[in-house]
Amino acid sequence: MNQVESLKHILHFGKDKEEAYAVLLNYPMEARSTLVVASKQLLADVLQMNLDNEISFDDLEEWATFIECRDDIDCTQIEDYVYALANPELMGTIDKEKITQMLSLVSDM
């Protein structure tokens, strides 16, 4: 598994997510270029995973925090949502109703 594959496994909650984290330890945090784009579709898929109880609110917060701290992930399409999910204490608690609203907004974009 290479760096790009590792990032994709983590972003998509792939079955090899833990291995992907281990692989990323071999790469510098500062990227020379963007390797992966966090798209609106990715966000919609992840939000739906939460609504379907496949991932928890904690998983969602971890996911957003991971995206925020990586230079090799371009999240400009969804950066406001990533910020809100990574900082629920600043944005008010995250619940199913807010996730549903986010999903609706992302789907309309």
Outline the structure in words:
- It is a single chain.
- The model has no long low-confidence stretch (mean pLDDT 91).
- The chain is 61% helix and 4% strand.
- A two-stranded parallel sheet has the order 1-2.
- It has seven helices and two strands.
- It has a domain at 34-108.
- The protein has 109 residues and is mainly α.
Oligomer: single chain
Strand content: under 5%
> How many angstroms does the end-to-end distance come to?
33 Å
Helix content: 55-70%
What is the CA-based Rg, rounded? 14 Å
Q: What is the mean predicted local confidence, pLDDT?
A: 91
Q: How does the overall form come out from the CA principal axes?
A: globular
Order of helices and strands: HHEHHEHHH
Report the structural category: mainly alpha
Low-confidence stretches: none
The tally of beta strands, per DSSP, is 2
Order the strands across the largest sheet as they lie in space: 1-2
Largest sheet, in brief, is: 2 strands, parallel
Q: How many DSSP H or I helices?
A: 7
Concise summary:
This protein is mainly alpha-helical.
What tags apply to this protein structure?
4% strand; mainly alpha; 7 helices; two-stranded parallel sheet
What's the helix and strand layout?
Blueprint: H1 3-11, H2 17-24, E1 36-37, H3 40-51, H4 57-69, E2 73-74, H5 79-86, H6 88-91, H7 96-108
Parallel strand pairs: 1-2
